[in-house]
Every structure is written in C-alpha cells, then in structure tokens.
Amino acid sequence: MPVNSFDDYPMTWRPNRAMLKFPIYISLAELLEQDILNHRIYPNTKLPPQRELADYLDVNLSTITRAFKLCETKGLIYATIGKGTFVSPNAALSNTYMREEGDFIELGSIQPYYQFNAIVTETARAILQRKQSEKLFEFGYTLGQSHHRQIAQKWLLNFQIDVLAENIILTSGTQNALLITLLSLFKAGDKIATDIFTYSNFISLARQLNIQLIPIASDRQGMLPDELEKQSRLLDIKGIYLMPSCTNPTGVAMPLERRKAISSVISKQEMLLIEDDTYGFIMDDKINPMMTLIPENTVYVHGLSKSLSAGLRIAYLVVPYHLQQIFIKTTNNINLKIPLLNAEIMSELIASGSACEIINKKCMLSEERNKLYSKYFKVNTSVNPYSFFHWLWLPAGVNGYNFEMQAETRGVRILCSDRFAVGNTSGISAIRVATCSPATIYELERGLQIIQKLIEENQTVI
C-alpha cells in the first residue's frame, strides 16, 4: 500500500518514518516508548494493527513485530488475543511512590508504625556504648557476619524455614534481595509469572532489566494453578513471583491447599519461585511457606522492614545450595553489602526479644485499625485481620488514577491500582489504603471519611 494513502486515514499512533534509524525495529520501539512516556499516547489506547503499521511505514511486518516485542518486554504494551495490542495502564505512571512531603493524611505508602522506632533507638544506643563498637563501621562481609546469620537462622524457624546459616544472605531490604535474585537467575527477555496486581517495586525492577512479567488470573485464594500451568506451557515462563502470606497490594492470603497446587505446577514445569514473605509475620495460623514444599525451586525473601524497622533496611535471603555461589558472585560484583551496624541492631532486636514485642504491638494496632476500616468499607474475608493495608475496589467507570489525584486535592494520599497492574486491567480500578501509615487512629478515620465521601461523589457523577 503506498505511503501517501494514509494521509487521511485515522490512526491512533503515527510514528514519523523520517526519524527511524538502523536497525529500524529498535528505533521504532524507541519512538513508541517515548510517545508513551511523554503522554502522546494514552494508557489502554489500542495501537494500529501490525500489518497496517507496516504498510504505513513501508517496512516488513517482522520489523513491527520485533519492535512491539521489545516494548512488550518492557511492560509498555500488552497484547490480547483477538483484540489487538494496547498501551499498558501504568506505562507512563511511576510504580514507585515519590512525592514531596506536605500536610497530607498518608494512606498511600506503607509506613509501618514508625512510633515503635523508639525501641529500635534504645537498642542502637546500647550497642554503640559497647566496647569496640567502632568495628561496626567497618566494611561488611557478603553474607553478613556469622553470628548475624545464626540469629537469622533461629528467627526463620518461627516461620517454618529450617536451613543452614550458610544458606542465608543478609541484604539491604527486600527490594535489594529481589534485585540480587533477578540479576543472578534471569536475563533480558526472560518471563516471570505474577499476579495481575503485584508489588509495584518488583514491576519497576523487571522493567528496568527488560524481564517480561506475565499476569496470571486469580481468585480470592490467590493465583489459579490451572492458569499458571497453561501460560507456562504457552510462553516458556522461567520464574514466578508470589507473596502468598499477604499479597501486596490486594491483601490476599493463599491457603495451604492452593500453595500445594501452585508448588506442584512450579515443580512440574521446572520454574523458579521467588517467594516474598515480607508479611509472613502477620499470619496467625502459620501456614508453611512454599519454600518448605519445593526448597530446590525456591528463593525465599524474608524482609524485616515492615515487621521490625523500615529504616534499618535488612532482609534475609534464603538460597538453595546449588544456587549459592552465583548469588555470592552477583553480590560481590555489584557490591550490595549491608552496613554492619544495621545488621547488629536488627540481630539484637531479635535476640533480646524486642522483635516479638514490636510485632505483637503492631498486630494489635492493625487489628484495631482494621475494625475501624470495616466501619466504612466492606472487608474481604480472605484478608488477614492484622493486614497493614486494604484493597478497595472502586465503582464501575471510576478511573483509579483520577481518583488518586482527587483524593490528594482533599488532603489524602492513596495509590491507585494502575501502579500495581501487570497486563490488561482496563475497566477495573481499585485503590490500596495503607491503614498502618497515619500517626493516629483519629487521623486514619478522617482519611477514611474523605475517601468514603469521594466515592459517593463519583458514583453520583456516573
């Protein structure tokens, strides 16, 4: 088809052919990425059919296919069989939460009861008064010092994780552990299965490393095993990322039978599981982590930022023996070592019993705040009563990002579902409400009242 026949033809995206450079498919992918990131193409926009775009640019169809594939790997677009290719809902939206401080009721970022930092402060003060405390400012070991790992080993027994201390790596928080895992085990173009709504920082890491996330359908018990197996066979999925104890952002806790079914698929399809157990400490029935079911297929991440201290940035990364050397090599190569002082404070909190005290107090506060939340909004029965946040579905037709902006103008910060979305989530919107973050329960109630009123106003408009 001649190029000029498109002069009056309606197209949702018209790349400038004069700007294309060799290799064309990479240049075209860059043009599409820039147009998406600069908001020249809006989220959920349907892109022109590949053959139509090839005719318009006078290039081979395979050039368009390769360009789209690059953008799909980055999470910028998604394809729906029989419907076409669309711009991802969060393609131009930051998955991380960075806003200036102000006079807001914070229900967006998870600030896990900072009032208990006083206990951490007392512990730190006592440590710094010890003899030879200056050694804690020296360069640390890759795995953490032996006594730090021994304390970690004992602590993890509380979560049914029984491993050798040598299999534990101390990292600077959960996100640091996830980065080490992705760099160690995956490469650009690899596919990792996730929930349709998943941890926003994991989305950002995968996008940065050009690892493609594959959304898997779920129900109130978590990811569906049949869907995981089906997609794994179709797409050659290498890994899977799950937060079975409390999925961030939806709060779903996966029961034992579902964990067993998912583990069976992982083992059968020879996938690698990244189990993020950051919220394992709120599980009152102590369901075994999935690592206990498939230890050789699992990298287990146990973050302590939410349970004990966000500022110390410590997580325990449990790695199967056959993968340990590659993890140590990665950690050494990028120099991701933890400050010894942070490790010492965290270890002392655990050894002294203060860690259990902090967790018990946080759970008590969460239970009180969640009862208040249920006064205003219906609570999913699958959500843990000690959860630090809630997933609130918005009325049909309400745009999540617009609702987030409206809430901010009323003095409340929340996060919309687009920030956690993988793949096609058009037509469904929700917000994550971090009930743990306000300094007082009175501030929380004011925030919930504002959200409730805003929902009512949006329903009236619709």
TrEMBL record:
Keywords: Aminotransferase, DNA-binding, Pyridoxal phosphate, Transcription, Transcription regulation, Transferase. Residues 22-90 form the HTH gntR-type domain. Transmembrane segments: none annotated. It comes from the Bacteria. CDD domains: AAT_like (cd00609), WHTH_GntR (cd07377). GO terms for molecular function: DNA binding; DNA-binding transcription factor activity; pyridoxal phosphate binding; transaminase activity. In the C-terminal section; belongs to the class-I pyridoxal-phosphate-dependent aminotransferase family. This is Aminotransferase class I/II-fold pyridoxal phosphate-dependent enzyme. It comes from Anaerocolumna sedimenticola.
